[in-house]
Amino acid sequence: MHHSNTPSPGRDQADLLERASRYLIDYSRGTGFFPMVIVEGRGTVLRDLAGREYLDFGSGQMCATIGHNHPRMVEALRRSAERVLHLDARLLGAATILLAERLAALLPWPLEKAVFLSTGAEANEMALKLARMATGRYEIVGLVRSFHGLTAGTLQATFNYRRTNTGPGAPGYYAMPAPYCYRCPLGLTFPACSFQCLTLGFQLVDAQSSGSLAAVIVEPILSSGGIIEPPPGYFQELRRMAVEREMLLILDEAQTGLGRVGAWFAFQQDGVVPDLLALSKTLGGGVPISATVTSADIEERARARGFGHITSHVSDPMPSEVALAVLDALEQEGLVAQAAERGAYLKAQLQALQARHEIIGDVRGRGLLLGVEFVRDRATKAPATAEGLAITAACRERGLLVHPQQVRDLSFSWRVAPPLTVSTEEIDRAVAIVDEAITTVLARQPIAH
Ligand SMILES: Cc1ncc(COP(=O)(O)O)c(C=O)c1O
To answer: pTM for the full model?
Structure first.
């Protein structure tokens, strides 16, 4: 049998994908792997083995904020390969120290102390652990439709992932209703609702709590849950109700942090400062690094209770070097302001599509974190899941990747989130593809009412 680790262009993708199905565990939850093999990424564009190009409007798994293989990242990888890649957890390279200082400078007081890990789930586990150790309590509150990771602790606080057949969970985790105004779980309308989802949510939490409430963990925009953007004032109200219970606020800015929403951090637009901030995906631009940032006071309180956390890659120099390059790119290329500007442009184009296509029930989100929800009927809001999946595939066939978010049989939406470096020309091309894909799919399989 012929073995080669460097497939050459033109080599049969179908053959490689056949081998993928033989040798890789299928973690796709039924959709399977996409029918191509990628050999190159530059900016917004991915190229497959057959030479076909795709606009990546998902930024990979939401990490490639500054575009695929940004030259600054490539240079940082080269530099760190020449210096040192990995060290003992208690042995520091300069990049890690400088990165912590840089984040403290970007963040408002009292967020000034950071720890660097590899994944989003790890950063959230760290936030949960620090919150528990600082408060001496253990109960955690999250939102329905949230996603915080798939490790033991974060999965319990994740309420948008099927737990079927994964055994019993842990006690002390409670869910509150999602602030999903397009489909308000209480059937109310903002602002007349006066945040009843929070009032009811905390009533349920109080009813179940054993008096040990430690923290609330939330995404500023519930991304995997369908790009649910809580209404204005929500986070201030949430903060107020958490403070009443002496609970800490953990914000998980895995996707929203570092420019994507048109601000360095989403919480700056929400008018709150969290006690603990988790950053991940966007920090490394595609290289695994995550951070948990908190106050000196919380760190001190946790240490007084014996806090410690040694992992294989804590404080590793290589990913820190890359994260510094990502911050340089965001700062020196004006990408935060660009996310606001290109995001507004893209959102307007999507709203224009919504005006023409009944199947688009809602367009939402801000900056370059946008959601498009597909419905069979705008009045009943019945989810157009089969049609949405067909349109997603039709876009892919035409060279556009968008991320489908199917929440059981409850809703089907897209996350539309290209790299912040996306050009208006790429946006125009993507929107034209979506337009054509919707028209083609619905001509083939019209929605029966
Ligand atoms: C908001 C949020 N938090 C946490 C995670 C988990 O990050 P990771 O997959 O890196 O563990 C994700 C996505 O995967 C996410 O979207």
So the answer is: 0.96
